[in-house]
Amino acid sequence: MRVAFFGTPEFAVPSLRALVGEGFDVVAVATQPDAAQGRSRSTLIPPPVKVAAEAEELLVLQPDTPTDPAFLAQLRELKPDVGVVVAYGHILRAALLALPPRGMINVHPSLLPGLRGAAPVEWAVIRGHETTGVTIMQLDAGMDSGPILHQIPHRIGPDVTGGELSAHLAEMGAQALIETLTMIEQSDPPPQAVPQNAERATYAPKLTRETARIDWSKDARAVSGLIRGLDPKPGAWAELKGKELKLFSPKVMETPFPGTGAPGEILSTDGSLVIATGPFKDLGGGSVEIFELQPAGKARMPATDWLRGARLKVGTKLT
C-alpha cells in the first residue's frame, strides 16, 4: 500500500516509524516548514517528523500550505493509495482529502467524539478524566468529526503529566494505525467506518497563555490537574512579585495544612513550596506542594534549589 504521510511534531514520529518498520511504501512525508528560532530568527529548526523522515531516506515535502497547487500536483504524481495524518497542523481541504483513492486516515489522541480539537491530551489531564485513548478515523471536512475505524482506550494514571500521556498515546496511535491499515489492506470488503455521535462531542480548545495561568481559588485537585496537564509545555504559571513563575510536580494535600491561608498564599518554604488553594467541596481547605519550578529566564529546577536563594516569607501570595 502506497502511503502519503502528513505530520509535524514528536507525537507523529512513532506512527511514521511504524509505517516504515511494517513495510508500507511511504511515498512522501508532508510536514510544516522549518521554524525560525533565536533572537535574530536566523536559525531554522526542522520539525521532528522531517528529521525522522530524512533518517529513513524518505521524500520530504514542506509546502507553506497544503493547498499549494504545485504540492497537490506533486502528490498526485506519486499516486498514494491512502493518506495518513498525525498532528500535521493544517486543515486539509476537499481537493486533498479526495486525492488518495482510499481517503485520508487520521490518528487522534482521544476517544472521539470526546475531546475534539487542538489539545485533547492536555485537557484530558486538566479536566481530571480517568480514561482516554486513541482513535483512527476517516478524515472529512469537519473538525475531528469523521467516521471511526478503530479505537483503543487507555486509563490515565493519577499523577501522569501531559507530556508522559502524549508519549504513551503516540505509541498507542502507531499501533492502532498499523492495525487499521492492515485491516483495510487485507479485508474484502474493507471495514466500515462508524459515524460519530455528534451529540456526545466535547471539545479541547487550543491552549492559551490565560489557560495556563493558575486560578488559586480552585481546589487543589484542579490546580494539580492544570499543572500536570501543561507539563512540560507550555507550563502552568503564576505571578510572584511581578514576575512569572512556572510550577511543576505538584502533590495534592487534602488535609488542611497547619495554619490558614487565602488561595495563592505560601504556607511553607521548608523543603518544598506549599501553596494554599480554594477549598474542596467535600473536605474543606486544601493546598498543593510543589517540588519543581521554573523562574522567568531560568531553567527548570528543584524547588529546594530555588528556595535557598528566593528568601520568601510565609504569607507571600502568588497571583
Short description:
With 319 residues, this protein is of the alpha/beta class. Helices cover 27% and strands 25% of the residues.
Structural account:
The chain has 319 residues and is an alpha/beta fold. Helices cover 27% and strands 25% of the residues. It contains 9 helices and 15 strands. Strands 5-2-1-6-7-8-9 form a 7-stranded mixed β-sheet, sandwiched between helices. Strands 10, 11, 12, 13, 14 and 15 form a 6-stranded antiparallel β-sheet that branches. The protein has a two-stranded antiparallel ribbon with strand order 3-4. Helix 1 (13-21) links the parallel strand 1 (2-7) and strand 2 (25-30). Helix 5 (120-126) runs antiparallel to helix 8. 39% of the residues are buried. The mean pLDDT is 94.
Strand order of the largest sheet: 5-2-1-6-7-8-9
Number of strands: 15
Oligomer designation: single chain
N-C termini distance:
55 Å
Number of helical elements: 9
Order of helices and strands: EHEEEHEHEHEHEEHHHEEEEEEH
Unreliable parts? none
The level of helicity is: 25-40%
